[in-house]
């Protein structure tokens, strides 16, 4: 008696059950027929989806995520939200690499006959480790996206709590906790897959075939852990939270756009950042609709259609590869630094448009402390220069004349008059000045020169 049993199923990242779509296992010999199949009825469709589109999009995603991590890791970019985005880019990169190794490369042999050694020797040995790691990276990506949304929700809707809650240290702890929790949750998956050796029926060489381990063949384990727990932990809870938080952010952004003239510069940047990350979450939800439908179909009905699983896997790869484009389109400072680092530097003129001018600013998010520091430094230099010029003019007896010919506008603050001071004053001059009834006089000024 033969029973159809997929090694993995659509509840796993990229529907790992589609590794061997037509896998059929004999309970007595555990002999998967895929090892003897040279022709797949879905070969052309799989080759286009996996062999062409997934590989090309995945390569672009690796390149884009690498650039994103380089830009977001620059010293002037240090912030809590940027650290979360770096963690998200790392997990997306892991997902893309694993998707190419598990799906993109093996399907090339199925349609073209190339990469025989990889499909039957390398792939069966590495898939037992890559499959659990892909599940770890997938859940980490979901909850990092949720954490980014939560951070923006606090920054936009509860700005008073943002400075104490949205810190760089908390972001590091959050990323570490998410990755560690995801690894512990997916630890049983390391014992779901195994392989064995046999002689290829056509070429008479030793090959390796994948089959599900005893744990994966347990019906109770599959029903509770693989189906229901995965559905609630990876889909239902995070998706509902994303919808609720982003609905609140969207309402705040709409209200801010109506009252745009009343917002400070910092508030406008926070709203702009929230808008950009709102696009990231919307793309995430759209690209995960088909995998969610596939999971629901398998949990409540039966195995999902082949095209639904393959298309959903491709959309997940697109989601992991597209964030770089969103950053470039909506992140004004991100795009500015990207062009400065990787394109012609002549595009920038010296001054405010140059990334070097933004030394204490960030590419995507503006830290309130840095803004206050930069403003205080600027005001300090303006006041100091104003005081020095005023003292020099008083010392030269030309205060009124210099005011008339000066091109510098008056300080917006109150004017405070100080006694004229010279670089070096003797004790006798100090005592003479303090003993004057009016505090200071023209005689005192002349005597101090």
Secondary structure layout plus pairing:
Blueprint: E1 2-4, E2 24-26, H1 43-72, H2 80-104, H3 106-112, H4 116-157, H5 159-165, H6 168-185, E3 193-199, E4 206-212, H7 219-258, H8 265-287, H9 289-300, H10 306-321, H11 323-330, H12 332-342, H13 368-395, H14 399-405, H15 427-434, H16 442-448
Antiparallel strand pairs: 1-2, 3-4
Helix pairs in contact: 1-2, 1-3, 1-10, 1-11, 2-4, 2-6, 2-10, 4-5, 4-6, 4-7, 4-8, 7-8, 7-9, 8-11, 9-10, 11-12
Keywords: Membrane, Receptor, Transmembrane, Transmembrane helix
GO molecular function: G protein-coupled receptor activity
Transmembrane segments: 47-72, 84-109, 129-150, 171-188, 228-250, 271-293, 313-330
What does this structure look like?
With 449 residues, this protein is mostly helical. 64% of the residues lie in helices and 4% in strands. The chain has helices at 43-72, 80-104, 106-112, 116-157, 159-165, 168-185, 219-258, 265-287, 289-300, 306-321, 323-330, 332-342, 368-395, 399-405, 427-434, 442-448; strands at residues 2-4, 24-26, 193-199, 206-212. Helix 1 packs parallel to helix 10, helix 2 runs antiparallel to helix 10 and helix 11 crosses helix 12. The longest helix is centred in the first third of the chain and has 42 residues, at 116-157. Its main location: membrane. Residues 418-449 are annotated as: Disordered. Residues 425-440 have a biased composition (Polar residues). The chain crosses the membrane at residues 47-72, 84-109, 129-150, 171-188, 228-250, 271-293, 313-330.
